[in-house]
C-alpha cells in the first residue's frame, strides 16, 4: 500500500540516488516568479516554494509547513513573510518561524522550514538542493552572453516533459539527430550526421565541436549572410556542465578569412538548454537563446523563440517521451544500447554524471536534512 | 507487476494493518441507501454491498460473488435475496447461497458471501468489518441528540476526500485552525488560537473543551442572541471515539447566570464528524449537524447544511488533501512534525488509535476470514 | 521509484512469468494493418511494430530502435525498410540494420531489432514472441472454416479490455452464463445452466460439448428453421487451444434424423474467440464468426458482427473487468473460489496453461533475448 504521490525523498537520499544534489539547478525562469505570487514547483521530488521579497530578491524554501505539512504556497504573504493557511504559523524568507499565535506564543526551535540557496542570474533562478554550506554562487557556470546585449535579441521558454532528464541531455549532446528529426529550417544538408564531433572533457564538463560547410547555409542564418544561396562555413560548439546544462553556440560565415569560427565572426546564436528533474519520469526543461543579428527586432524575436519552443515540443518532445516509455527508469547501459560514433559526447556525460552522483558522500546527504 | 486496483486485504490483515477492524464505522448515510438499489462502497479496501430488505432493514455483505468474484451489486434483487449477474447464484441477505441453478443444484458449503453486521442508527448505517462475534451494537457511541428533535433542525452530508482518514481527524481535533482557514462566519475573533483546550482522555475517547468570550458572538449564532452585536460567552466540547468519530458541540450565551455552558443553556449546535477509510489515500467523510434554534425552518436548514458542506469542501478539503500529498502514507511522527500546544488532543488520538490497532490480536484478524 | 510504464520484460522472463511465450498469439486482425502504415501494439508488455511489405506480406519486430529506444513506428517507411525518426538508422523487414548514416557508416553488429515470426492466416496476424527456432506455423490451430465460404458470411472484431486474459478465457469456457448475463436473443431457456458439459482434454486442448433441446430455438437461429416457434435440438462444441484461443460452434436443427449434431447438418455458426495480453491488467480480445445461412447477405452480416461485438462489450465486458478489479493479478485458486460443475472446463484450462508456463525452460527464456 503506497501513496499515489511520493513524499519528498530529501530525507532518504542515499548512495543510489538518481540525482546529484550538490549543484545548481534551474528552478524557474526569472519571469515565472512575479512580485506577488507564491510560486510552487516540485524539484527532485521536493515541493519548493519560491517568491520575491519586496526588494525583488527571490527566495526558496521547502513548500511545506513543518507543523502539519500543508504547502505554504497555499497561504498568504505578509510582507516578506509567508503565513501558513492552516494554523497561522508565520515564516520569514529564510524559513524561520517568526510568529506562532498558539498557546504562549513561544516559537518552537524546530519551527524552521528548510530554505534553499537561490540565485537570480542570466534570466533564471538557480537553486541549490544539497548541502547549503557548499552552495557557492561562483559554481553557477557563466552564461553571461545571454544577458549581454539588446533585450529584443534574447528569448526564454519553459517546457515540462514526461521523460527522464538524462534523455533530454542525450538529445542535445548528440546533434546528429538534426537532419532526421527536424525540419528544413535547421537542416545541415546531411553534413552533421556522418561527422563525429571533436569531443573534449575535463573534470566537470564535456564539450563537442562540429565544423562544416553547406549550400545554402542553415535557413535560420542564410538570409543574414551576404550571398544567401551560396555556400557557407558553419560551427557548433556545445558544452555540458553538471548537472544538466548544455550551452550551444551555432553560426555561419561566408568570409573565407575567418579560420577560427565563433560568434564574434559568424552570424549565429548562443543557446542554453537546461533541465531539472521533477522526478524520474518528469522533467522541467528550460531554454534560452540570444542571436547576434537583427538584434532590435521585437517581432522577429517573438517569432524566433516561439519557433524554437514549437520545434522542441512538437519534434524532440514526443520522441524523447516515447524513448523514456520504452526505457523506463532503467540505466541506459543496462539496456545494451547500440552506440554510434555520434554517441561519444552523450555517453561521456552520462558516465561523468553517474560518477559525480556516486561521489556525493552519505555525509553530504545527511547534511541535507538540516 | 501489480494490479492497478488492489483486491481486498481483509484476507491479509496483520499486525501492521493501517486500520482498526473491531469497531463500528459509518458505511453510508441512511438516506444513501434507498429501498430498491444495490448500493456499493469500498471500505477499508473491501467492496461492500448494502441494500434494504423489504421491511427496510439494511444489510451488508462483501460485494463479490464467491464463485467468480463479480460484484453482486451488478446483479439483481429477488425479494430480499440478491442474484449474481454472471452465473445466477442467489444469496440471502445473510450472504448464504440459497439457490444454485447449476448441475445437480446442490449448494456448495463454501458458497457463502461474508456478511457484515450493520446497524441503522442516528441517521447513519454503521458497519462492523472485524470479528463479528465482537459486534455489539451497544459499542456504537450514543449520538442520540442528532435524531432527538424537529426534523427540520438536522442535516447530513457526505464528502469523499483524497486524504488519509487520520488527517481528517486531526483537522477536527485541533480547532485552532478556525480563525486561519475559515471565513468570517465562524470566526472566533482570534480567541481560539492562543487558548489550548482542556484535554481529557479515557480508555476509548479523547475530549477537548474550549471556553471563551468574543464580541460579537460567532456570526452563526449572534442573530439568535438577545443583543447580536454584544459580547457573548462561548463553548466548544469535542469528543473523539474510536475509530474515527468526533462529536462537536458549540454554542454561545449572553446570560451571565450560566456558569456551566452547554447546549441546554446556549444557542448552538450538535455536530458529528465521522469518517471511514476507503483506502490509505481516500476517505469517506460524513457529517451531521443539529441546531437548537429556528428548529422548524426547512429553508434555513437546507441553507445551513449546504453552507457547512461547502466550507468543508472548499476550505478544509484542499488543505487536507495537500497535506496528505506531502505526507504520503508515512506515519505522522516519523516525519518529525513541529507540535504546538493545540496539538495535544489530535496527538492523543493518533497515539491511542495506533495502540488500539497494535492491540488487535492476530487471532482476531484470523477470525476476519470466516 | 518506478516508471509508470514498464519497459519490456522480454529481457527478464523467468519461471514465474505470467505468460506463455513459445506459442502463437493473435497480434491483430489482418484488416487492422493496411499497406502503408506502421502499426504498433503492445503484446506481453513488449511494443511490437507490424507493417506490410510491398508484396503484402506482414512483418513484425520489436517497436524500438536498438540505439536510443525510440519506437520505430514513429519513423517512416522506405520501401520495405523502416527508418528511425531520431537518428536515421534504417532496418530491413527482418530487423537488420542496413544503413547507418553516422561516422564511417559501418553498421554495428548489434544494430539488429528483434524480429518476430508473423503469419497471416484465417483473417488474423499470428505472432510468435518466444524462441523463434520453435516457431512452426503448423502449430497454429486450424481455423480454416473462418475463411472457407462466402465473404459476406464472416465478420471480425477487436475489443480491448481492462482485465486479465484468463478471465476472458474463463468466460467463454463456461457458457452456463449465457442465460444469466445475456439477453433474449441467445437465451437457451435455462437449458445450459443445469447441464454440465461433457469435457475432454488432451495434451494441448480442452473441449466441452453441450447438447439440448429448447422451444423455440435460439432466436439467432429459429427464423432459419422450418418451424420457427417449435422445438429444436441444439449443440455447442468449444475447444480451447493454448495459449488463448477458444473455437466455438453452435447450431440448431429440427430434423430428427440427425443424431450427430454439427455445422454440416445444423443452422449455426463457427466462432473464434482469441486474446493476447497487453499486460496483466489489459487484454486484446479478438473475435470472428462465420455462419452457414443467409451467406450472401452483406447487410445481415454487418448487423450480425455488430450485435455480437456489442453484446461482448456491453454485457460480458463490464462483468469481466469488475471481476478483475476484485481479483487483481492474484492466482484464481489462491482466492479460494467456490467451484461449480460448470467450472470443469475453465479450471482444466487454467491448470493446463499454468503447467505449460512452468514447463517453459529458462533456457528457452534466454533464447528470447537474441
TrEMBL record, chains A, B, C:
Keywords (A to Z) from UniProt: 2Fe-2S, Dioxygenase, Iron, Iron-sulfur, Metal-binding, Oxidoreductase
Name of a matching Pfam family: VanA_C
Residues annotated as domain Rieske: 24-127
One GO MF term: 2 iron, 2 sulfur cluster binding
Highest taxon listed in the record's lineage: Bacteria
SUPFAM superfamilies in alphabetical order: Bet v1-like, ISP domain
InterPro entries from the UniProt entry: Cholesterol_7-desaturase, Rieske_2Fe-2S, Rieske_2Fe-2S_sf, VanA_C_cat
Record-given protein name: Aromatic ring-hydroxylating dioxygenase subunit alpha
Species of provenance: Parathalassolituus penaei
